[in-house]
Amino acid sequence: MKLLVSTVSAALLALPVFSKTLPITLDIVNAQGAPDGFSRSMVTANGTYPGPLITATKGDTLVVTINNKLDDDTMRRSTSLDFDGIFVNTPNSFDEGSSFVTTCPVAPDASYTYTIPLVDGQAGTFWYHSQLSVQYVDGLRGALIVYDPEDPLKHLYDVDDENTIWQVGDWWHNTTLPLLAGYVATGIVPVSDSGTFNGVGRYNGGPDVPFHVVNVVQGTRYRFRIINTSARNVFTISIDSHNMTIIETDGNPTQPMTVNSIDMLAGQRHSIVVEANQPVANYWINAPYVGGDPTRNLNQNATLSRAILRYKGASAEDPSAPMSLGPAGSALNALVEANLRPLVASPAPEADINITLNLVVTAGKAQWNVNNVSYLAPEVPTLVKILEGANSADDFNVTENTFVLPANKIVQVIFPPSIDDEAHPFHLHGNNFWLIKSNSSEEINTQNPIKRDVAGVGSTGTIMRFSTANPGPWFFHCHIFWHFQAGLATVMASGLEETRKQVDPTKAWEALCPAYDALPADLQ
Ligand SMILES: [Cu+2]
């Protein structure tokens, strides 16, 4: 007995960190709000935009219960929550939140609990959003930060807390059902009314909503975690008179790289270190955005998208400098994605399988095609079909655009150059990819590419590689959710047999589809 006790104690002592279970409850409710001064009904978690901050420590298990209380019929009534960028191991893939790929949506007046262990030592900057149609455009988006007590770059910053998170996002005054109907009728992607920075913004002719204030103390170094929670817009982040040192890309530590301007596509995240090394004053944090032709929406004024960096001791007023689109007072030194390097260099594995994806819009229509197929969500989710025995591509609808892949292989995805006025931020669920060729450069890098989970696809072509060592049906789609909803999506379904062996879903998950399917259309 004594021997047993001491063995157990030794085992416990050997654990570097005690992982814990984090119960989180989110009431998904419609709430009236005016992020940019225009009052509208929103879809929210707990009534706020952005939603409540979720923080965890690496190794924790997220246990997120959502209570769907949505009752406004100008927006979708069902819902589903996706935790963007979080690694999801095969056995937990059923709780990954992608409607009609890994789950069915949660009906109004129902609750569901997603259980997601944080695996593989993953830490960094993530976010959550609705993954049902374009519902997150209506506001259901929030930050999810996983802290690493052993962060190898900790020596570079002094402060990293709930006040150093920057969420930028596009914002619309109308609700998504009419916006989507307009898109379908015209083929013109909705142009946002404004942009928000930590939930506040301004539009032409609107009230002077106070800008978000970021408080700093002179001589201190801050880790700011930036998340572009947009459904369309690219945000360009800069701070007047200050440099920004990038140390993280989508949850992956990078070699520190100092720039003064960062383009961020929808879904992308970066951590930056900023040293408050300037005279005590107020400085603009510029966060202009681009997303479609601004003359289509005269409310839009990207110059009004910004926040204030306020030194302790400075007066509580706007900076005296003019509102500019870039970092005033210094030559432009913009991030080139291809120049980023992982903190620990490692070559990408050789590819076993090559897939070429051609993205083409159907002229004049709200329809995007990947290799001539426009993705249409099936009635029976991909994972259900796999669990029921699907074995090949023939077992899925053509419009599911599902690529059946063997487990434990390296897949290379080649996006040839495509001509569109905006790059498509392609996002892989549940896993990372090596970015072999960035759209920002002609360089092919297999020796020390960065890993991330969202990368732009555009005019120069993009190449990614990912491993299928973590089998499952993983959604792979454009994070411009208007494009996603118009069919710009595929499913990378790997290791169907291995998936069947490892996935043992709960009764609560199995009940989701029958409940959803029984709903009248206006409650779905
Ligand atoms: Cu797109």
Keywords:
six-stranded mixed β-sheet, 524 residues, mainly beta, disordered N terminus, binds copper (II) ion
Chemical compounds bound to the protein = copper (II) ion
Q: What portion of residues belong to β-strands?
A: 25-35%
Count all strands and give the number: 32
Contiguous uncertain segments of 5+ residues: 1-16
Identify the strand order in the major beta sheet: 10-9-12-17-14-15
Distance between the termini: 57 Å
Shape: globular
What is the averaged pLDDT score? 95
Provide the gyration radius in Å.
23 Å
Major pleated sheet? 6 strands, mixed
Alpha-beta content class: mainly beta
SSE topology:
Layout: H1 2-14, E1 21-33, E2 40-45, E3 54-57, E4 61-68, E5 81-84, E6 111-117, E7 124-130, E8 141-147, E9 165-171, H2 176-186, E10 194-197, E11 212-216, E12 221-228, E13 234-239, E14 244-249, E15 252-259, E16 262-264, E17 269-275, E18 282-286, E19 289-290, E20 306-311, E21 353-356, E22 359-361, E23 368-370, H3 382-387, E24 402-405, E25 410-415, E26 424-428, E27 433-437, E28 451-452, E29 454-457, E30 462-467, E31 472-478, H4 481-485, E32 489-494, H5 496-502, H6 507-510, H7 512-517
Parallel strand pairs: 1-4, 3-8, 9-12, 11-20, 21-25, 24-32
Antiparallel strand pairs: 1-2, 4-6, 5-7, 7-8, 9-10, 12-17, 13-16, 13-18, 13-19, 14-15, 14-17, 18-20, 22-23, 25-30, 26-29, 26-31, 27-28, 27-30, 31-32
Bound molecules: copper (II) ion.
The site of copper (II) ion (CU) has 5 residues, from loops.
